[in-house]
Structures are given as structure tokens and as C-alpha cells.
User: What shape does this take?
Amino acid sequence: MRHSMMFTLPLALIACSGDGANSQTPTTQEKPFKTSIIADFDSPWAMTFLPDGRALVTEKAGEMILFDPGNGTKIPVAGIPKSDSAGQGALMDVVLSPTFAKDKAVYFSFSEERDGLKGVALAKGAFNQASDGTTKLDGVQVIFRASPYVEGNGHYSGRIAFSPDGKYLFFTNGERQKFDPAQDPKATLGKVLRLNLDGTPAAGNPLAAKGFNPAIWSYGHRNLLGLAFDKDGRLWEQEMGPQGGDEVNLIKPGLNYGWPNASNGSHYDGRDIPDHKAGDGYEAPKVSWNPVISPGGLLYYTGTAFPMWQGSLFIGGLSSQSLVRVKLDGEKAEKADQWDMGARIREVEQGPDGALWLLEDGRNGSQGRMLKLTPME
Assistant: This one.
């Protein structure tokens, strides 16, 4: 492991391949931050900070790691169900309960195989570290499974966000590269879901009375790999488009976001998809990219380390090997900055001190490093 080493990423643009058929070539920008290499992981997927400054990190193959950035210690977390990590499968998101200080609850998502079919599951357990340092999640139980499970290894999604009042859990289910389920009212695939903290559908979801699955909050999505609330309680989501058409959406209850009937991109075989346009019945993205950035994690920034960026969205770019900033103004969003990071960025997180923390995804040339971004002195 390399710990607390300062390095300078190359300003030359790097060609790459990966998620997304045609990567956005970032505009070279002077980076207004220092980048420190903190640790190496094995294809990390997500991270979340504990109140004491340590972090839980998930890895694609199915490991959850308790990591101490102060001394570099890594402790495996026991009690995690087996993940199916083929293709885009992984042990995915990890988020602390709004009541973690009281109940130590940790929520996480993972892809699994059941009876020959695959899907994304949501689970929770209680964080427990013994006096000898051994760490586990007690009482782990799966509280929600996507519906239906299908064949294939793609577009699981699995991002988690809690409502600002701490009463509800929002969970993303990708359309599993099957297209039509995103518009199917009975399936949870291609949807943003609103659940109670026990995983049951929340009362009052906007489409239940119309015969939709009672968990659905919004629909017509593709591969939803980022979910975050802003300071005013608006829910923002980013998703990978097809060949072009990566999106940032403002999620509102009951709306249809168009996939696969509308997209600002095209099918991988070159077939056209009608663009979003006024009056088509579908909610258009607030920002879209074509060529793509292949968005990974999503963060709404509230920290003080970079005060000029408070209220911005930060997105990890996979095939674009970039960190992307989107400026928000109420319900409006616009592209602001895109920095070449020289590696596929899977996750963006805010540290306790307001620093930006990134995870490289460890595939297609990325090393799987944890990076910390701090202001220039």
C-alpha cells in the first residue's frame, strides 16, 4: 500500500475504453487541488465515512473493508452475503443509517444469483467491532430485492440515499440492459424507489394507485449510478446513457424519464433513439453528455474545504477518466468543470474535513486507488 504520497497526475489526455461506447475527451484544466494517494484497493466500488473518520469501502469481488486513513489499517468486515461479481456485478453501495449513532445500522447493496437469475439486493446489518479489532455486521438481512430477477450481468445500479428527514430510503434499480422493464409498471427495474427503512414500499408513493409496483417513485431510467439530495431536499440522479446521452436528472415523484423511448444518445448498433423534446411526455435531463463521460458515483458537496464549490454536484467519470463538476441553481444545472484524472473514477465522497475523496474502479488500466483532493496551498 502507498500511503499519503503526493503525486501529480499527467495533464496529457489519456485514451481509454470501458463503460460507454464513446468517451468524452476532457478539456485540459489546471487542477485547483492537490491529489494524495491514500491506499490501494481491489476494484473498489463505494465508500462511506464513520463518525470517527474511518471508512467502510466495498470491493467488486464482495469484500467490505474497514479502513483507517490515519494509519492505513485495513480490516475485513465479516457477515457480508456472497455477491455475484460477474460482468457489472459487485458488492455495491454502502451508506450509514440516519440513526447510526444509536443503532449502528449499515445499509448496502449487492448483485446476487438466485435460481439461475440475477438481480440487485438491498441489505442492512449492525456494525460491530470487538475489542480484538475483528469487525462484522451483525444480523445482516436482505430487506429488498429488485423485481424481476433476469439473465445477464449488467445495469444493476444499486445506489442508496436517505431522505433529509431520515424517514425514507431511496434505492435505484437499473433496467438490466433489457430496455422495456424501465417502462413496465409492475417491474422495479429502471426505477427510483422510495422505501421505508425496513425495505417495505413507503406509503403514498405516487404511482401505486395507478397499478404500479408500490415501491416506485420515478421510472424510465437506464443505469442509475448516482443519487444525492441537495440542501433544499431536491433529489438528483445521474445515469449512463447508451452511445451518448449520459444524464443528470432532477427526480420528481411519478415522472417518466423516457428510457428507452427517449434519449439524447443512440443505440450501440447505430439505431436512432428519439431525443428528448418538449411535449413528448417524458422528463428531460437537466444536463446530458454526448460524447459520454460514463458517470460513476455522485456527490452533492456541502464542505468548507472548497467553499467556492458548495452546492455543486461532483461525478466520477469512468471511460472519460475524469472528475466532473455540475453547478446547480435551484432546479437548474449546468456543466462547470471537467478534470482529467488519468484513471477511471468510480466513486466521489466528501470527507469529514470537507476534502473530496475518490475511488478508482481498478479496471481497464485503473489501479483501484483511493485519492484525497485538498485545496492548493
Remarks:
- DSSP finds one helix and 25 strands in the chain.
- The mean pLDDT is 93.
- The chain has one domain: 5-375.
